[in-house]
Amino acid sequence: MAKVQSPRWLEPLVRKCIALMGVDNYAITVQWVAPEELEETHNFPASGDCQADAQYLQALIRLSNDLTRENARHTIPHELSHVRHANVERLIESLWKAKPRPRWSQVKQIIHDEFEKIAQADAELVKKIVR
């Protein structure tokens, strides 16, 4: 299958969203792929997907090459949200695999602390937008 060149508007939009959402500490690769590639992965039509690794601060975002600029304004922040919150997935996985298992009260406190960090980051994000 021939590779389709991404549109000129894509890279500036991605850069702006990365900076706005505060994930510029990640090495993020964006691929412009055929919609069939995403559908094959998910078994349903998708505009994009994300594989984020919070340990190594890396992410791969794949966007459908039939994505319009208007739809990209939703899809890119959606996929970057997976990057922003990849640490929660990593935390839950580590708690699940922990030996010995922590007490429920410890798990609740750890999750609460993580969501407190998310709330603080979200507040900072809104502060950037609402000046």
Task: Give a brief outline of the structure.
This protein is an alpha+beta fold and 131 residues long. Helix content is 56%, strand content 15%.
**Average pLDDT across residues?**
92
Strand content: 15-25%
What summary fits the major beta sheet? 3 strands, mixed
> Helix/strand-derived class?
alpha+beta
The count of strands amounts to 3
Total of helices? 5
Write down the Rg.
17 Å
Global geometry: globular
**Unreliable segments (pLDDT under 50, ≥5 consecutive)?**
none
Going across the biggest sheet, name each strand in turn. Answer: 1-3-2
Percent range of helical residues = 55-70%
- What is the H-and-E element order? HEHEEHHH
Termini separation comes to: 46 Å
Question: What labels describe this entry?
Answer:
3-stranded mixed β-sheet; 131 residues; 5 helices; alpha+beta
Structure write-up:
The chain is an alpha+beta fold and 131 residues long. The chain contains 5 helices and 3 strands. A 3-stranded mixed β-sheet has the order 1-3-2. A hairpin with a 4-residue loop joins strand 2 and strand 3. Helix 1 packs parallel to helix 3 and helix 4 runs antiparallel to helix 5. It is globular.
